[in-house]
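Could you show me just one protein sequence together with its fold in token form as a worked example?
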Amino acid sequence: MVRLIPFVFVLLWSTGFIGARYALPWIEPFNLLFIRMLMTLAVFLLLIVIFRANWPSRRNAGHQMVVGLLVHAAYLGGVFAAIRWQLPAGVTALIVGLQPLLTAVMSWYWLHQRLHWQQWLGLAAGLVGVCMVLLSGLQGQQFEVKFVALIAVLVALLGISIGTLYQKRFGAGVDLLTGSFFQYLSTVVSMGILTWLFETGEIVWHPELIGALLWLVFGLSVGAILLLMLMIRRGEVSRVASYFYLVPPLTVLEAWWLFDEQLSWLALLGIAVTVVGVYKVLRAPAVATS
């Protein structure tokens, strides 16, 4: 049963793009994230009371707030801002798709987690597969990359990569519920400031927005994030990060099913290459840290 956790996580995480697609026609992106995180904060507070979770020390609470700024605010805010500034979703996902490889390099350099050559090969294959999937959806499109959009998506990439390592380094021993509470607390504050500075606050409470918001809160911000924090605590960050390679291919399949977006032969081949790459990372022999 424990072995299924990463795949449940990938399934939940991949639906974030689908939920955003349903929600964003009716609300601005930073405001969507602000309301989503505010609701999530209330849910976690209720769970903390029910399960009588232990509150962290001030120092550990501060570390968790930093994780929130990196994993939630920087990543989600950067992705949504990039798309808002007309960077195509496929290009955004392609750049963020560098995260497993960047995390592996950072963990090798900072945490001294040595990687087997099969893991490096698998990470590279996963990156190639993701590029094939996403580029297949960009054929024939012409677009202009704005500098601010590029900065936003790079902030997202660095946020999720550094945040994963930061949680591995400073998140040990912190209760998952109270730790997540402080992560979302810092995210609520940052999204509230961004909403106030850059958006109008206009909302159309359409059923699609309400449904998407509920799913983003309970499916993603509660379910997926708790699984991610558990995976980071139990495993090497390079192995955990490799699962993110499965997200874009699965998102493509979901978009095909829900929105009738067609899959090219290049996309199907890319999905196969990605799966093989992740398999190589997970099946590679463990290497002792130096």
Q: What stands out?
A: The chain has a mean pLDDT of 80. The two ends are 32 Å apart (CA to CA). Residues 207-234 form the longest helix (28 residues).
